[in-house]
Amino acid sequence: MTASSQAPEAQAPEAKGFRGKLIAPLVVWLAIYLWPVPAGLNVNQWHYFALFAAVITGLILESMPVGAVGLIGLTVAGISGYIDPDPNKSLRWMLAGFAESTVWLIVGAFVFSIGYRKSQLGRRIALVLVRRLGTNTLGLGYAVAMSDFLLAPATPSNTARSGGIVYPIISNIPRIYGSEPGPTAGKIGTYVMWTAFAATAITSSLFFTALAPNAAALAIAKKTVGVDVSWGQWFIGFAPLGILLMILVPLLSYVICRPEVKRSPEISDWAVNELGDMGPMSRNEWIMLALIVLAMFLWIAGSSPDIHIPLLGSNFVNATTVVFIVISLMLITGVIEFADIVSEKSAWEVFFYFTSLLTLASGLNEIGFIKWFANEFAKPLAGLSPSTAMILLVALFFWIHYFFSSITSHAAAVLPVVLAVGSGIPNLPVTTLAMLCMYSLGLMGVISPYATGPAPMYYGSGYIGKGQFWGFGLIFGVLYFAGLLVIVLPWLTMVR
């Protein structure tokens, strides 16, 4: 049998799997569409929900690129007239999401990451930290965590942050000590890899612009229950837990992973050599550093009503406007080129995905489905105190992530439901509920080998065994979740 005759047979399983992923959303849509309309809903509301459920199924299964799934769903909703039978009004509803400021904020943050990569500033920051803190293994752990911390505010993809900057650097470290995947992983490799992974979960929650789904979740919360926060308010709300965890996690990882190598002077020498090869900071690195400092200042000061700048006052610039300012300066100074922006596939996929999904999610509220759901499913929690009901809802939102491989699809599928139920419970602080759920998006990424983009990368390194990954994930997941309830919950009641 020739190679060509074998090719179709070899490709059959993949093709079958692909067809199944395409058919599954249609099956979900048809099943809900044909199901009898529940009491309290009309046919139009139920059929719109069927479409929304099909889109979420497509996102979970990744039937197509997420941007394509969202765009197709939005198109079908628009031409079906679910929101408004008038074609012109329906079109205006379809296009509303493209004007969302949070969407452009996250697209801009992707462009920031281009500047980090092209200027090599991100690599230099990581190497400097390794040089200064890497003389012993525990210090090395803090260097790894701090690298992610410094990169996170301007890198909205934790996958890009880990895969493009942090992981390529730290993957060199274990082998210097003869720590290879397999029997010798425990020398130092397991500790380094797990610390990096656990740290990126924290920074993804600490900074609004450190995780793309944060923007989607905030937009959903705004449209569903009217919750809106600035970049600075987001940071302040999570800072007590986030900073504490950044201090504790390298130490806790050290205790749990028990690395055999206790000191690592060679790592510092290696980082010195790498920095020597890079030479002094380039013009573009200095410019990029200045622009990131400028962006951080404007995000914090320019959107806070409590900070007054001479001549400018408070609230003098919108967070999304900051993005356009910095990108314009990056283009003017030559740090990036416009072709870099156009070719940033991830940014534009996010753009189409967010705009489509946020519009679809808002449609559930506009047609009255969310109100019906809240009234209907809040009934079993009616006898509980508001605080107990909120804790149960946050627990549901956090731990159900074991059933998701995408934080984005999790936020889209579960957050509207949780907020709808919470808003139907008398005296439950729905703003606090929304913030706790949104803060958990980054943290929940630690619980499984598929929970977030960086997870398969660190698991695939071979330094963390399957049993170890699940065990470490459970331990850190419990720690992170407990921190939300013990630290963030009372803190939010004080600052809001």
Features:
0% strand, single chain, globular, mainly alpha, disordered N terminus, 23 helices
What does this structure look like?
This protein has 496 residues and is mainly alpha-helical. The chain has 2 domains: 18-99; 100-335 and 367-496, no CATH class. The chain contains 23 helices and no strands. The longest helix is centred in the first third of the chain and has 32 residues, at 3-34. The relative contact order is 0.13.
Please give the structural blueprint.
Blueprint lengths: L2 H32 L8 H19 L4 H15 L6 H10 L4 H19 L1 H13 L3 H15 L6 H13 L2 H4 L12 H18 L5 H14 L5 H27 L7 H14 L4 H19 L17 H15 L4 H5 L2 H22 L2 H9 L8 H14 L7 H17 L6 H14 L10 H7 L5 H30 L1
Helix pairs in contact: 1-2, 2-3, 2-17, 2-20, 3-4, 3-17, 4-17, 5-11, 5-14, 5-15, 5-17, 6-7, 6-13, 7-8, 7-10, 7-12, 8-10, 10-12, 10-21, 11-17, 11-20, 11-21, 12-23, 14-15, 18-20, 19-20, 19-21, 20-21, 21-23
Measured on Cα atoms, how large is the radius of gyration? Answer: 24 Å
| Count of all domains | 2
Element order, helices and strands? Answer: HHHHHHHHHHHHHHHHHHHHHHH
**Protein structure class:** mainly alpha
Number of helices: 23
Main sheet overview:
none
End-to-end gap = 71 Å
Q: How many strand units?
A: 0
Mean pLDDT across the residues is: 83
Helix content: over 70%
Taking pLDDT < 50 over at least 5 consecutive residues as the criterion, the unreliable ranges are 1-14
Shape designation: globular
Amount of beta strand? under 5%
What's this entry about, in short?
With 496 residues, this protein is mostly helical. The protein has helices spanning 3-34, 43-61, 66-80, 87-96, 101-119, 121-133, 137-151, 158-170, 173-176, 189-206, 212-225, 231-257, 265-278, 283-301, 319-333, 338-342, 345-366, 369-377, 386-399, 407-423, 430-443, 454-460, 466-495.
